[in-house]
Amino acid sequence: MLPMTQESGELDSLVRKRIRALRVAQGWSLEELAARARVSQSTLSRIENGRRRLALDQLVTLARALDTSLDQLVETATDDVISHPMVDATHGLMRWPIKAEPGMTVVRQRMTDPPPDNPSRMRAHPGREWLVVLSGTATLLLGNRRFRVETNQAAEFPTMLPHAIGADGGPCEILGIFDRDARRGHHRGEDAGKTSRPPQ
């Protein structure tokens, strides 16, 4: 079982949120994930709601059922979420350093709504995302934290953290950059939302 220091208590809460967010992203009910993980529905419900201790063997089984790894399921939050551009005054350029890799997808989006208030609508999936705010201010919800990302600021985060992005105080335009796993996770979430009944 996971030792319960303050730091591990925060991780414990984060892991439970990830399990639920990954289940919701797949469009699965408690019953469906419980069947895939070969645990009872009541056990899974107590795990998600914090009423049952997290056991390592159950985390391994749940990670496999959720199509991820134990390492990703228990990954801790990074402190370096928000970054500022590097300004090249000589050439009149701004650059946002990111650890890009082959297979990246770039999407430009205009947002007018704030991120959802309901934590159950936050999404989690394997991969990493980057975003650059082109205009306005965005709000990034990441696990238990809330960040204001202003014009010309960038953010980078692992998408195994439950997350949501929206506008802050008015429309904003962002450039979203996704690695292969993150893009696949978004497509899967969109497809599940169209075809699946709402999860419990």
Layout of secondary structure:
Layout: H1 6-26, H2 30-37, H3 41-49, H4 56-65, H5 70-73, E1 82-83, E2 86-88, E3 93-95, E4 105-111, E5 128-135, E6 137-142, E7 145-150, E8 154-158, E9 163-167, E10 172-178, H6 180-195
Antiparallel strand pairs: 1-8, 2-3, 4-10, 5-8, 5-10, 6-7, 6-9
Helix content: 25-40%
Note the gap between the termini: 27 Å
Uncertain segments of ≥5 residues (pLDDT<50)?
Answer: 1-6, 190-200
What average pLDDT do the residues reach? 77
Quantity of strands, as a count? 10
Structural class call reads alpha+beta
Fraction of residues in β-strands: 25-35%
Largest sheet strand order: 1-8-5-10-4
Q: Sheet with the most strands?
A: 5 strands, antiparallel
Output the number of helix runs.
Answer: 6
What is the name of the CATH class of the largest domain?
Mainly Beta
CATH superfamily of the largest domain: Jelly Rolls
What is the global morphology? elongated
* Gyration radius, rounded: 18 Å
Domain tally = 2
SSE arrangement, N to C: HHHHHEEEEEEEEEEH
* CATH level-two architecture of the largest domain: Sandwich
CATH fold-level label of the largest domain? Jelly Rolls
Describe the structure concisely for a colleague:
This protein is an alpha+beta fold. 34% of the residues lie in helices and 26% in strands. The chain has helices at 6-26, 30-37, 41-49, 56-65, 70-73, 180-195, and strands at residues 82-83, 86-88, 93-95, 105-111, 128-135, 137-142, 145-150, 154-158, 163-167, 172-178.
